[in-house]
């Protein structure tokens, strides 16, 4: 599959198409990233819910063992292991929250860049097309018209 390349025969035409490309990217890329961040937030929320369920189960187990007068050594060691697991899960939950917050912060930066690109892209494109038309195409059209008149006479 051949991908068309940007025109490089004239700098103004190249600038104009680059402006169109900036506009297109500023419209699509941030939306794509926003969707990716939303999915990451959903994953983090699901993971948080799982960890909270596990922590609630451990707290219930602790409550049951506190009610028992003399827990067995196996119950105590099992409880210590579960408490260690819950602490590890809590650390993992904090990490997920920080990652999610960072992604949300990045999301606002992507949208800021999108707004800048959406404003700058059309302006650059207009400038390039205008310069190309005024400085290159219009003189060529005039030259062709003069040449046609000479041939017609």
Model description:
Helix content is 90%, strand content 0%. By secondary structure, it is mostly helical. It is rod-shaped, with a radius of gyration of 32 Å. The relative contact order is 0.17.
Looking at the structure, what is the overall shape?
rod-shaped
Average pLDDT: 82
* pLDDT < 50 stretches: none
| Proportion of beta-strand residues | under 5%
Radius of gyration (CA) equals: 32 Å
Compute the separation of the termini in Å: 48 Å
Number of strands: 0
- Number of helices in the DSSP assignment: 2
Report the sheet with the most strands, covering strand number, pairing sense and barrel closure: none
Number of domains: 1
Order of helices and strands: HH
Give the fraction of residues assigned to helices. Answer: over 70%
Task: Name the descriptors.
0% strand; 153 residues; mainly alpha; single chain
Short précis:
This protein is mainly α.
Record the SSE blueprint.
Layout (H helix, E strand, L loop, with lengths): L10 H57 L5 H80 L1
